[in-house]
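Internal ticket - ligand job 329, PBG:
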Amino acid sequence: MMNFSSPNFPLSRMRRLRGSAELRALVRETHLSPNDFCYPLFVVPGENLAQPIGALPGQNRWSVDKVIGEVAAAMAEGIRSVILFGLPESKDSEGSQAFSSEAPVQRAVRELKRSFPNLVVMTDVCLCQYTDHGHCGPLCGHTVDNDAALEILAKTAVSHAQAGADLVAPSDMMDGRVAAIRAALDQSGFKDTGILSYAVKFASAYYGPFREAADSKPSFGDRRSYQMDSANRREALREAALDVQEGADWLMVKPALAYLDILRDLREHFALPLACYNVSGEYSMLKAAAANGWLDEKLVTLETLLSMKRAGADLILTYHAREAARWLA
Ligand code: PBG
Ligand code: ZN
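stdout (structure tokens):
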């Protein structure tokens, strides 16, 4: 043996507990299960549609009749929750199809809760898929009119609750939206409908594929006047604290992978359940690398999802949900 001295070696040998799969399993600190995943789904008008989304390989836009089968398959694999995004029949400057009781999201919620009463159904509450300019609320000059957006967002949340959503998830980043939505839900008799707030949502280039899927790209400018600056960590705590005061039941950080430090910060500062959104660009990066044979898809996907759990997420919104659930089975 080489002649050297160390205060801990050879007394301590970290490899002792890594020697077999069984030992490693006994000392593993973080576990992934299908329970950890919420499956995002895009619903569109029409019937009998499963339209592949180019930038999200393996994901489709579903008509309401077809989304039922997709969810049945996901539930059989152990998935217990979904979050719905909708594309409307038509768009206008205010995004008024967002609160139509006959729009795809509202119809899908009713059908899903009828078919699967135990499924946890969440809905994304935002207006960018519904406005003709692609911003997350009505405009005032070249920016979104915060206070005018609140009213439409609150109506939208109530329409989702009316359809039977268990939780509404506002993703617009308007100030005061959690309070406005909580008040509107309570006044409409939906005191038990929860709010999962996209409390800390950064202006991110990782949303690219989603905007193709949801046809929600802003027609001018970007979302930097309402979504957070990627550089800011203390501001994330302020955003989360405000949403807690306004009545959020559950907090989310989005995106996930490039923001695991923020997820850990929230875990340490708040006792609320915590979610993260493993967004479209994060999914597409792995799919593209795997398709080229550059990465082992199963291993890299599970490692990525595990990192989110380890950073502090209780729930991961992920397009990998079904595949990952199968790999974990
Ligand atoms: C709507 C919304 C977006 C995402 C979820 N809700 C896009 C955006 O803010 O531009 C992104 C999800 C993803 O990239 O998978 N505001
Ligand atoms: Zn939006």
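Auto-summary: The first strand starts at residue 37 and ends at 44. The pocket of PBG (ligand 1) is lined by residues 124, 126, 128, 136, 171, 207, 210-211, 216, 223, 279-280 (CB under 6 Å).
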